[in-house]
Amino acid sequence: MTFDAAAWLESATIDPAVLALRPDYRALLITAEGLLPGPGDELSERLLAGAESAARERFGDGPVEEHPHLAAWREAFRAFGAKPQRTRPSAEALLRRVSAGLPRVDRLTDIYNAISVGHVIPLGGEDLDHYVGAARLVRAEGDETFETTAGGEPVIEHPAPGEVVWRDDTGATCRRWNWRQCTRTRLTHDTTRAMFVLDALGPMDDTALKAAGDQLVEALTEASPGVTIASRLVGAA
């Protein structure tokens, strides 16, 4: 069956219980088909190095968590019971690693990490070949499965009741809004179809959110010239 990106994006939902926590929340969802995966290369390295340089210039030795967008994300985490000092919003976690150098994972992950750092926005990627059904952001019941690793071994965890999670028909794909992705749908050297989630709260307006999405699309297109892109903004009007 041919994948209908527009229809799949239209099926994505944000539960009203999540918007009750943060009425200012928006998710820019971007699908990409025809990606060229693999290890890091000149392009991904150039993007990461540029993001590191820009972050050092922007923050210096100052506390990254005081950036308005990251401060808002810390508030959002506290709203559903998470402790941001222990489980940090993904963009903050990356920015805290800039001084020692951002991780080099693979070309697709490195690309979206560079955009995340450069625009100070939580950004994740999911392999659509391992995604089952519609994407939805919900407050967890607590019985959802979350596939991860501990001590190098695969384990199944369960989110806490009320925790904000992205999920599909199989289980949770990302815990604590944007803190940690599951192993089942993570991007790999075999990923050719992906969905990217760009998370915005009030301090990041729609113009800035679009700019981050546009740069991601530009980078993916440069990395994979035959890629097909579709997108949808979900959330607050």
Automatic annotation (TrEMBL):
Residues 71-225 form the B3/B4 tRNA-binding domain. Pfam families: B3_4. GO terms for molecular function: phenylalanine-tRNA ligase activity; RNA binding. SUPFAM superfamilies: PheT/TilS domain (SSF56037). This is B3/4 domain protein. It comes from Streptomyces iranensis.
